[in-house]
Target: DUF1636 family protein
Amino acid sequence: MDRDSSFSAETTDISSGGDDSLAGITVIVCASCRDETGSDARPRAGELLAEDTRQAALAEKIRVRTVECLGNCKRRLSAAILRDGCWSYVFGDLTTTSGADLVTGAKLFATSSDGLIPWRGRPDSLKRGLVARIPPLDMLKD
Model:
């Protein structure tokens, strides 16, 4: 089966407590990511990262979703942080315990005035692991 046709998503909408500015933030975790050994064992390392992220986001209004593949397999555990109307970020080289870093990045993103995750205060894993920054469609030029 083609990777793109196997897309599925699981949603956890964290809506109790937290800052209202976080309501427009979504963290997407690749649930099919394997650990550094490439093992097919379940739960996969990506599933563990997703659960760690959900736990870190419990008190925040951050949507945490999973997807079957972000196509970043060479960089192992991967996740993306999206904000309505702003740039999107893809990160790799994460660990199963990077959930708190993803939530910290999401919180920095939510309070950013220019639609970018500020470098200052960004956890090291989100500095080293940056794979791509994708502009919103309305920012593209012909």
